[in-house]
Amino acid sequence: MPNSGLAVDGACSGNPGPSKYRGVDIYTGDIVFSSQIGYATNNICEFVALCHAIGYAMQNGHTQIYCDSVTAMAWLKDKKVNSKLVVHEKTKKAHELVRRSLEFLKTVEVEHDGIDLVINDSIAVSKWHTAEWGEISADYGNKK
After folding, report:
1. In which band, very low, low, confident or very high, does the pLDDT at 64 lie, cut at 50, 70 and 90?
2. How far apart are CA 89 and CA 39, in angstroms?
3. What is the pLDDT of residue 143?
4. Distance between CA 6 and CA 125 in Å, rounded?
5. Do residues 108 and 54 make contact, with C-beta atoms less than 8 angstroms apart?
């Protein structure tokens, strides 16, 4: 099980529903960022969390990010979101965060090295293996 890097996770009450995400330093257990994003889907939460983590890692010298969402990692790899979340007042903030995340991704290079995604040749984005390692450090613990 990894003992360093950043772990990200998102959660919502209902899907879609009121949503949030956070990033946690795996070594210390400290929450290094978190945000409420309004009405969204879990996949949007995970994707925005992953993009936030990349920006955070670039600014703070981290070289490893873990995410348990295959969908968020695919959206990152493709630099494209495939969501059917309807645009309305309740989803306005989530859609704005997705737009900003996609704009941010235009400024970075995303490569697939066969296992991980690599950002700007310096940050690895890896799949968290929940079955083997348990819940990701950033998990909210609200699964049913």
Report:
1. very high
2. 9
3. 62
4. 9
5. yes
